[in-house]
Amino acid sequence: MEVLGVQLVNALSYGMLLFIITSGLSLVFGILGVLNLAHGSLYMLGAYIAYSLTMKYVPVFWLAILIASVIVALLALVVEVGLLRPTYHLGHLSQVLLTFGLAYVFHDVAKVLWGTQVLSLTLPIELSGSVQVFGQTFPIYRLLVIGIGLFVGAFLWFLQEKTRFGAIIRAGLVDKEMVSGLGINIKLVFTSVFLIGGLLAGFGGGIAAPILGIYPGMEFQTLILALVVLVIGGLGSFLGTFTASLLVGLLETFSKYFLPEVSLFIIFVFMAVVLVTKPNGLLGKKVG
């Protein structure tokens, strides 16, 4: 019973990490119509940069993660303004190819800067222990990650549902031309959304590093699961992304524990079932 409790906490913390990462990808895809295949690379860079900061420049764990997140967000800003913006009129395929190429560029840059060995972001002493809850022992950091994920989810919900910027985002999901016709600087909205997406990816990489490690190829593994979450949850649905992240986190963790040989197969079967029964995702909005 205690093992199942620990696995449940592991699953929830992993689901929260997926939510933080995928919510940024979902925003970018929903508003810009860009399937950013370099999103996983921004996640990877957040982990690597946080590691370098804690090792050499910023020994304070949370400050290093925040700085790494900002650096990744600024990099995302450069990508959107300098590379993606000139391609918006060319169609989605050009953007997919561009971001796919960027993913491999970032992959090679990371190998040059940090090597190919597996790295680990060390937790501060106060976060590396365990705590007793209802007689069971749980890692403090994983419980904290669950709390952070819930806080990020609440903040994003408030931003999207209760602010003017969120209203513009929701309107942009439905009709970008209408938003632009109302005199709103749609380019600035696009850039802001991409910046938020990069910030979330970098932050997700930083807080995931002590749990999942840092290694070459981590960006592609995470991107695949983020895309699965995006498909299962449904485009344009904040609650869908949240729900799908938890479901995939539970499936990934428990299938690896009970059936490690077919864990990925189980996730894709689940995605296929969702697509067959609900083509727009669990809570996605109908198109057309």
TrEMBL record:
For membrane topology, the record states: Multi-pass membrane protein
Q: Which GO terms describe its molecular function?
A: transmembrane transporter activity
Q: Which UniProt keywords apply?
A: Amino-acid transport, Cell membrane, Membrane, Transmembrane, Transmembrane helix, Transport
Which superkingdom does the taxonomy of this entry point to?
Answer: Bacteria
> InterPro entries this protein is in?
ABC_transp_permease, BCAA_transport_permease
The GO biological-process annotations, alphabetized, read as: amino acid transport
Which parts pass through the membrane? 12-35, 60-84, 140-159, 188-212, 224-251, 258-277
Indicate the principal place this protein occupies in or around the cell.
membrane
- A Gene Ontology cellular-component term: plasma membrane
Q: Name where it's found.
A: Cell membrane
According to its UniProt record, which protein family does this protein belong to? Answer: Belongs to the binding-protein-dependent transport system permease family. LivHM subfamily.
| Protein name from the UniProt record | Branched-chain amino acid ABC transporter permease
